[in-house]
Amino acid sequence: MSLERKDEYDHDAWMQKRDLTAVESIYLTVLIYLDKRLRIVDYLELLEDLYYKVNMQMPKSHTEQYNLDNKFWYWYPLYALGSFSTIAYVVAAISGALLGFYYAPAAAAANGEPSVAYNSILFIMGDLNLGFFLRSLHRWSAQIMVAAVFLHMLRVYFTGAYKEPRELNWILGIVLISLTMVFGYTGYLLPWSQLSFWAGQIGVEMSLSVPLVGEYVAQLLFGGYTLTQATLQRMYILHVFFLPFIVTLLIAVHIGIVWMQGIAEPH
Amino acid sequence: MTEDTNTTTDASHDPADEREVRTDGGDEEVSADGSGIVPPDDETPTWSERKTRTQGLSRVTYEYFERARREDQDLRQQSSYVERDVLAFPAWPHEMIRNLALTSFFVGLIVMLAALVPPHLPNPADSGTTPAVILPDWYLYWSFGLLKLGPLNPELSLLGGQVLLADRTYGVLANVVVVGAIAIVPFINKGSARRPVEQPFWAAVGVGGVMFAFTIAVLAVKNIVTIYEPLLFDLTFLSPLVVATITYAILRSMREGYMFDLNRRYYRLRPPK
Questions:
Q1: What is the domain extent for residue B106?
Q2: Contacts of A98 by beta carbon, 8 Å cutoff, 6+ apart
């Protein structure tokens, strides 16, 4: 990088002088336009730094050094379980957002008459084009996500991948698997069917049985000591607002730590 | 910093002094645009040099970073590994094509399941009639089973045969205990052993845990299991122990031969000096 002043910074003339393709000149025009306003050049150093960090020189991995690739990649499917649960999570998020267009968490009477919520599920499954498939897809991707998360945890346990320096990620993983199950539980209650109602009943009794703060927990999570409209409303907001933000953030941190620390290979 | 470089440029009658202070290491003019950015090179001051005047925590932080960076550098220079620019094979196209193929296959699998096995929708909620089978989703069976540990709740003679915790509190506490036990595993099991054969005890604990997750799930649905209930309750706790013991025995007997193979391959690749 030369610090000497070359010309009058006539960027247009400089571009004319160069023999640029259409793509290059459009790119440069946009870049110069943005740089004049935002001084992107000031952040180039950050980008360079990032580039060298990403392409940092790394020593040979254990498997490469001792030529254990054939032994290691044989187990590759087990090492893909974390990715699989993330993919299933994405599929569930997309299908869930589409289901959200048609679902209404309302009028949760529990007298055996179909409520608004139950009726909207009936509408999705009966009348909506592809709706039956959409709900099926959402449910199955959720099931597979949980299954993949469980198997992922077993893989990490049995290959000793939780050991130093990865203890914190193991703890984070336990938080994530718990939140995944809460995700599934809140979703299970949304159709407001018989099974939803009685699963919710168990949930309320579990929170009420917590010593000292049980009643507060029940009110906070279930909106009361019995299952009402408030319960359904809260489960809905947990399922479509709180948990998506929290879980997505934690998954990003979890994967980020794996990226920084590398995959733990069995010795 | 900008002020510093300007001052030294003014005082150019003393070249020795200037050479000492200037950190851009060249004869070129320092940029006059006020950015104060100089090209990085060997003369660039280290973080600790730049931060000598900082105090307290930030000072300590930079000193530690300096040490850590030096340690990395030393380890890299000592190592006999071949160093390359990039770890593993390229992200594009190799890794990306493999990931795309796996992802499409996996999404296709979900779509196929969703199309072939649609979900069931039970009757609408009715608080008046309790259904015969109350169940959460399958992945919560273990938790549901832990709520049914009433028979294990100790009756304390101090309290005149009363239980300290209500049965349902006891069940919720059991959930906390199980999750807590899993969480502290990395802090109990240390060392470099990774494969199950290297650590038969922990592998046995794991297999026993998986078995317990299964048996406690069966206990959760005890009203539709046709096994005599006290027997089912005992089996819930005994079978994980039995399975764990068998696992331990098998892995222990495998260990010697397995480690022999592993060590032979290791020493064939890296003969002892």
A1: 89-116
A2: A134
